[in-house]
Design brief:
Largest sheet: 6 strands, parallel
Shape: globular
CATH superfamily: Aldolase class I
CATH class: Alpha Beta
Number of helices: 10
Helix content: 40-55%
CATH architecture: Alpha-Beta Barrel
Oligomer: single chain
Strand order of the largest sheet: 1-2-3-4-5-6
Length: about 250
Amino acid sequence: MNPSSLKQAEDLFKATLKTISYKSKVSVVICPPYIYLESFSHLLKAKSYKLKASLGAQNVSWQEKGAFTGEISMEMLKDIGVKYVIVGHSERRAMGENNLDINKKIKMALSFGIIPVLCVGELERDENHEYLSFVKEQIQICLSGIIKNSISKIIIAYEPVWAIGKVAKRQASPEEFREMRIFIKKVLSDKFGAKTVEKVKIIYGGSVYKENVIEFLKENADGFLVGRDSLDAKKFSEIIKIAENVF
């Protein structure tokens, strides 16, 4: 729920776009609260900002249409130019969203040509490695019924819940991400075939800062789901520039 006003949101959006090069090899997706999406869509169509970034939504309903007060449909998002949607974020899961709900959202997103960013990640990293089974179950249920041809259209965001926000126990290490990236690829390969999942992007989303992105990129992170630092145009642009230099 940030920023708290349209003026603040537009100023942040414009400031961020000014730092993105037209020739950038990095794809930048901005996912603001729903009420700012249409305004941002108009700004992106303006000559000075066109094609510099794509729009994403923070959440969406799995229902296509109907009497669902307070919900936003995939068709509504597509109509204003949204290209991506985050599904299964840890904060949404904490509110009661489950893997079956997320599975329906992914299928709905794909049917409308919107790219789902599927968040997976364990609540804690135990010594018995039960967290691997936890993440495996998330992936298997969330991607149940997804056909092989569609898996490359899904982005997987690994966000270890224990490493996120003010209550984070500690930061996750690049080596821990590498382990999980390999594991996620293995789970996907077992389900869809190794060749099919080669193009699946796995990004990192657990407390991302300019000071740690280079190390995660060295461990083959395909990108980042940036939280707090996306609210500071200067910090966010520094993350983008670092990624540009690596890619």
